[in-house]
Amino acid sequence: MTIQREVRHYIQNELRRDIGSVGDADSLLEAGAVDSLGVLALVSFIEGQYGVTVSDDDMMPENFDSIDAIAVFVERRRSARD
Q: What Rg value do the Cα atoms of the chain yield, rounded?
């Protein structure tokens, strides 16, 4: 399963948000799919699922505003770790 699919699955099943009409490049905040608490839950999921650390400096819309942005962030963190 791709990072995008795993994140989408988490949002739909754990956060219980209907994001069927939200594309991977769409803003999750603008679509109302997640709020600030949802972002914090996503961060916790990302750290646990992918073994990466999210610092305070990483908490920017560029990293968490869309499913694609989250996937890019995770891949970047994984590459830096290896």
A: 12
